[in-house]
Amino acid sequence: MTNLTGKTRLLAVIGDPIGHSLSPLMQNAALAELGLDYAYVALRIAGADLPVALDGFRAIGLYGFNVTIPHKQAVLPLLGQVSAVAEAVGAVNTVWWDGDRWCGTNTDVEGFLSPLRPLARDWSRQRAVILGNGGAARAVVAACQMLGLAETWVVGRDPERLAAFERSFADSPLRGNLHTALGSELERLLPEAGLVVNSTPIGMSPQTDASPLSEAQAALLDPAAIAYDLIYVPSPTRFLQQAAARGCTTFDGLEMLVGQGAVAQEIWTGRAPNRETMRRVLRQHLFG
Ligand code: NAP
C-alpha cells in the first residue's frame, strides 16, 4: 500500500456493485513498486448519481478513474472527449481529467491484445470466432479489427441480439469483416479459425465443468489456433483445457485484466507499471 501524503493523487474504479473489484489490489501494488504518490480506491456509485459523482470528482481533483459495470456506456455522454476506439466499442473504462474536461478511452481492447501483439502471426489470413455477443465481445471485435483479421465471426444464441450487435457496428470504422452466426454454425466455422475467444461466462466458477464448446466441437479446433478465454477463475477453464488438449496456444482472462489496468495506469501516470507485479498479486489473491 502506498504511504499517503498531503500530495497523494487519488485514482478510483467506479461501479455498482464494486466490492469484488481486483483493480485496487493490482493498481496499488504497481504504483507502490514505482514509488509513485498515488492511491487507488473502489467507489460504489449508483447509476442515478453518475453525473453528480463526476462533478464531485472534478471538485476534489480526482486524478482519473476506471469505469466498470454498469457504467461503461452511461459515462460516455458525460465526457468532454471520447477516443475513437471507445466510440467504436460503445464503452469507456478509463477516464482522466485533462485540466479542462473529462476524457475517456477503452483500454479493454489493448488489454485483450496484450498477449497477442508479440506473436509473429499473419493475422490478415486468419478467422476469429468470438463466442458470445455481450459487452466484452464488443472490445474483442474492435481488437480483431485492429489486428487486421480477415474475418470476425460473433457466435450467439439469440438471433435478435446478434442482429442488433451487428447493426451497432454498421457505421463503425472498427467494423472490419464482421459476421454473426448462431451456435449451429460452429461446426463449419471452428476448423478454419485461427483465434477462438470465449466471451461468455460459461465455465466461470462455480460452473467450472462447463464449456461453451461441446467435446465434439472442441475436437474441431485447429492445433495451430489460439484459444483465449476472458474468464480468469478458474485457470485454466474447461474451454482452455479442451483447447490445450488439441495443442492450441491458450491465454486466460488474467492477461486482459492486467493489460487493461496497465494501459490505464500508464495513461494516468506516464509510467509503464510492472505487469508481472500485477499478475503476481492477482494470482496470489485468487489462487493463494
Ligand atoms: P455480458 O455482457 O453479460 O455478455 C455475456 C454473453 O454471454 C452474452 O452474449 C450472453 O448471451 C452469453 N451467454 C451468457 N450465458 C450463456 C449461456 N448459458 N449460453 C450461451 N451464451 C451465454 O458479459 P460481458 O461483460 O461481455 O462478460 C463476458 C465474460 O467476459 C464474463 O465471464 C466476464 O467475467 C469476462 N470479462 C473478462 C474481462 C477481463 O478483463 N478478463 C473483461 C470483461 C469481461 P445472450 O446475449 O444471448 O444473453
How would you characterize this protein structure?
With 288 residues, the chain is of the alpha/beta class. Helix content is 36%, strand content 20%. The strands form two sheets. The chain has a six-stranded mixed beta sheet with strand order 2-1-3-5-6-4. A six-stranded parallel beta sheet has the order 9-8-7-10-11-12, with helices on both faces. It is globular and about 60 Å long. The protein starts with 8 loop residues before the first strand and ends with a helix. The site of NADP nicotinamide-adenine-dinucleotide phosphate (NAP) has 23 residues, from α5 and α10.
Which descriptors would you attach to this protein?
binds NADP nicotinamide-adenine-dinucleotide phosphate, 36% helix, 288 residues, six-stranded parallel beta sheet, six-stranded mixed beta sheet, 11 helices, alpha/beta
Name the quaternary structure.
Answer: single chain
From N to C, what is the helix and strand string?
EHEHEEHEEHEHEHEHEHEHEHH
**What is the residue-averaged pLDDT?**
96
Task: Report the helical percentage.
Answer: 25-40%
Number of strands: 12
Structural class: alpha/beta
Number of helices: 11
- Read across the widest sheet, the strand sequence of neighbours is 2-1-3-5-6-4
Strand content: 15-25%
Q: Give the overall form.
A: globular
The major beta sheet can be summarized as: 6 strands, mixed
What is the terminal-to-terminal distance?
19 Å
Bound heterogens, unique: NADP nicotinamide-adenine-dinucleotide phosphate
